[in-house]
Amino acid sequence: MPAPSIPAPTFIESASNALVKELRRLAHDSTGYRKAGRVWVEGEHLCSAALARGQRPALAVFSESFWPQAPAEYRQAATKNVVLADALWAAITALESPAHLGFVLELAHGQSLVPDAPTVVLDRLQDAGNVGSIVRSAAAFGFTQIAAVRGTAALWSPKVLRAGMGAHFALRVVEGLDAAALIESLRLPLLVTSSHQGDWLHRATLPWPCAWVLGHEGQGVSPALEQAASQRIRIMQPGGEESLNVAAAAAICLHASAAAAA
Amino acid sequence: MPAPSIPAPTFIESASNALVKELRRLAHDSTGYRKAGRVWVEGEHLCSAALARGQRPALAVFSESFWPQAPAEYRQAATKNVVLADALWAAITALESPAHLGFVLELAHGQSLVPDAPTVVLDRLQDAGNVGSIVRSAAAFGFTQIAAVRGTAALWSPKVLRAGMGAHFALRVVEGLDAAALIESLRLPLLVTSSHQGDWLHRATLPWPCAWVLGHEGQGVSPALEQAASQRIRIMQPGGEESLNVAAAAAICLHASAAAAA
């Protein structure tokens, strides 16, 4: 079997090149991928995670100085290779890593929810770091679907991707959902965390598969989802702090579900 | 009993004022508090958390436009009030909140570890958001002491304080420790998380009180602390992801300890 071929790279050194402009937009505008239908994925960790999950990039991008030393797995990953003058690369990248590489991936359009897949529902979460951390925990604990209600931080934004550490590629990610439609679609027990009522998590019997609903950092879970819940769960906090960080609460709940399913 | 008096404010409008310069340094330099021996705490949430835990600020600072509407609890909190011209305030603040207020708190010097207090050990953690989230979880789950090994992100930096959401004021915080001295000081079972060996957390019997050791985001726990551990603990990850975010792992472990102690 012949070794996979390495597409000859196109070299770009003009800042006004249309592709360079698109890459800048994808890298700096957190919702730019929505209009474009494609997403910018940067750095060795994320790129290798994408390949490991079977992604085939539309485009692989390298800096001029990194290209000669770029590992073959990245050079032969895409149907097209582009090499940017170092100054152009510097204007796109958000990383300090010496591996100057990124992929452009086509996003699947109009994905619908799988009704019975173990799901994490993000109900208008605002902080990109929290969202990325929850995506990562979801993948670690055997959940296979993220369902984000409209108003949640953009799931494929560069910040969320970085915090997700590649977990995006292991999950079905559906965003921009209407809460009522989401409740209609999912055929799973819905669990919500509550600070004042419900069963204590460490004593609760948890169903599997299930959908955990994680709510807005300030306002919590919206009334529609709260009412649709089959179980309300409390996390004990003997220290008496007002509330946990939502990504910390999510990790605790998703781990408890994984342990219950084991 | 007479109502507490409100110190007449000193109004400052010069950017070259020595106090303004100090505030800028405290607000923007993550380790500035170490030299100064005092820390800048900003915004209504953090300031009220500090007061609720009995802190008495050396100084309360307000913007000119916020001062007339500032609640009495903040105006009478410190022995000295300072009002800054709005432009000076804008050069100091990192928040977008309309409550333009901050405290300067004196830091206790040369704190030593309490040998048997439930403790979270931070072993060279780098990310301010992770450190703050862990401080917050520690307080929520009944731990009373943070012991940070030298090389850990500055615990009283503005970023860590923000992510900690006031939990700092509920804890004894000791930083800049040498790992060997720390092991010598603590009279508690030391628990470390491990990705490849040890007891599964969801089946383990956990001691209380205890000290959890959380390691560097990339390198994990250092060999000295690893060797001193009385128990190695694994978190199940059926999704097969390489590792959890350290703040997520911390939340899961600290909650499990709280549940075991209940």
Automatic annotation (TrEMBL), chains A, B:
One of its GO terms (biological process) is RNA processing. This is RNA methyltransferase, TrmH family. Pfam families: SpoU_methylase. Residues 119-255 form the tRNA/rRNA methyltransferase SpoU type domain. Gene3D superfamilies: 3.30.1330.30, 3.40.1280.10. One of its GO terms (molecular function) is RNA methyltransferase activity. It comes from Oryzisolibacter propanilivorax. It comes from the Bacteria. SUPFAM superfamilies: alpha/beta knot (SSF75217), L30e-like (SSF55315). Keywords: Methyltransferase, Transferase.
